[in-house]
Design brief:
This protein has about 375 residues and is of the alpha/beta class. The chain is about 30% helix and about 20% strand. It folds into two domains: about 60 residues, DNA polymerase, domain 1; about 290 residues, Aldolase class I (TIM Barrel, Alpha-Beta Barrel). The strands form three sheets. It has a ten-stranded mixed beta sheet. Strands 1-2 form a two-stranded parallel ribbon. Helix 1 packs across helix 2, helix 5 runs parallel beside helix 6 and helix 7 runs parallel beside helix 9. It is globular and about 70 Å long. The structure holds S-adenosyl-L-homocysteine and iron/sulfur cluster.
Length: about 375
């Protein structure tokens, strides 16, 4: 269970109300001697109306507003820059307290828009094919900084007019960082994503992706019902040890068991785990490996999402050809799996999976290095 927030009376920064779940906000109001229904009013102001100025929260009464102004604030992180891809994908570089930079990506598709949210500045897990991992770990994001990305995406989107529809319909915790290593803050932020007084998203439309922090995944089932994706990337432990080093601590069998327990604990018994498999040329993309994967997942309730590797400078890896992706896909389909291939989005703005680094770099120079580092092939897989 989450502890109630410590109240820092007086000097700024006060309590950042942006990151408090309904339960935490109710506790906050009780702690300052107010009625807990105030929490509902503040949540609506902040998340529905996008209001950050406590002085504008008119139904709180003047005395309460003044009290709050002295001890609390509503402070989203700061947008440093915005990048629009030719395919409609938008990426924001966001500065968090202490100067760290993170990235948030909005991917519009027919009838929906998925926001890819970061959970940490950098990542400690060092997967061999991930540029976030290459930059190392700086720090966990607070709950306010995580939900603040949703707040910013909605409130800074120029096409968005309150009441005219939803600019964010789905959230995936697939940006920078390993969400299960920042457990409490991620859980609090996901509560706000699902909370009707905040963003009211369906639990099926919020997805947590993990590389396999098994003890934390075991704990998640008791506090959350969001959809689950696991980053598998290899059909056996020998290869996965190389690609996803945390596998040495929590090998594949443990991860699959923990993921199965997670969905078994859900009330909705139709749910499946999404298995993410980043395809890297000559490393894990061979038909034999697809067959081995089919055997591994034979009785596992899942759908498989193939992600053609997205290159970044000095990665040392290459994206497979479209034919190699199709062959791998076909083996799995023939074995009876539901398999999707993730379309690469936002590549021209370095917004694709695994390309997020949070650094503000000269795009032109980066593109040159990028081309030198990998023989990039455009793939078309329907
Ligand atoms: N840390 C979490 C979530 C963030 S990464 C996790 O690892 O699951 C989101 C997804 O992008 C993961 O499946 C990850 O393995 C994948 N990914 C990372 N780098 C990639 C790259 N360069 N190309 C394609 N997918 C990548
Ligand atoms: Fe971290 Fe996920 Fe990247 Fe691995 S793939 S280094 S867990 S962000």
């Amino acid at each position: 269970m989450m502890t109630s927030p410590a109240i820092n009376v007086g000097e700024r920064p006060g309590v950042n109300l942006l990151g408090l779940s309904l339960r935490q906000m109710e506790q906050f109001f009780l702690d300052i001697g107010e009625k807990k229904f105030r929490a509902q009013q503040v949540l609506k102001w902040v998340h529905h109306a996008g209001v950050t100025d406590i002085g504008e929260m008119t139904n709180l009464g003047k005395a309460l507003r003044e009290k709050l102004l002295a001890i609390a604030e509503v402070r989203p992180p700061e947008i440093v820059s915005q990048h629009d891809s030719t395919d409609g994908t938008r990426k924001w570089v966001i500065r968090v307290d202490g100067g760290g930079l993170i990235e948030t990506v909005l991917i519009p598709e027919a009838g929906r828009a998925t926001l890819c949210v970061s959970s940490q500045v950098g990542c400690s897990l060092d997967c061999s094919f991930c540029s976030t991992g290459k930059q190392g770990f700086q720090r966990d994001l607070s709950a306010a900084e995580i939900i603040g990305q949703v707040w910013l995406a909605i409130n800074s989107y120029d096409a968005f007019k309150p009441g005219s529809g939803r600019i964010v319909t789905n959230v995936v915790m697939m940006g920078m960082g390993e969400p299960l290593l920042n457990f409490d803050n991620v859980v609090a932020a996901m509560e706000l994503m699902l909370e009707d007084l905040a963003y009211g998203l369906s639990k099926r439309r919020v997805t947590l992706s993990t590389s396999g922090v098994v003890p934390a995944l075991d704990r998640l089932a008791a506090v959350s019902e969001v959809s689950l994706a696991i980053s598998l990337h290899a059909p056996n432990d020998a290869l996965r040890n190389e690609l996803v080093p945390i596998n040495r601590k929590y090998p594949i069998a443990m991860l699959l068991q923990s993921a199965r327990n997670y969905i078994d604990a859900q009330r909705d018994n139709k749910r499946v785990v999404t298995v993410e498999y980043t395809l890297i040329a000559g490393v894990n993309d061979q038909p034999d490996q697809a067959r081995e994967l089919a055997v591994l997942l034979r009785d596992f309730p899942c759908k498989i999402n193939l992600i053609p590797f997205n290159a970044f400078p000095q990665s040392g890896y290459q994206r497979p050809s479209g034919n190699a992706v199709s062959r791998f896909w076909q083996v799995l389909v023939d074995a009876g799996f539901v398999v999707t291939v993730r379309t690469t989005r936002g590549e021209d703005i370095d917004a694709a999976c695994g390309q997020l680094v949070g650094q503000v770099v000269d795009r032109t120079r980066r593109s040159e290095r990028y081309r030198a580092a990998a023989d990039i092939q455009a793939i078309q897989v329907s």
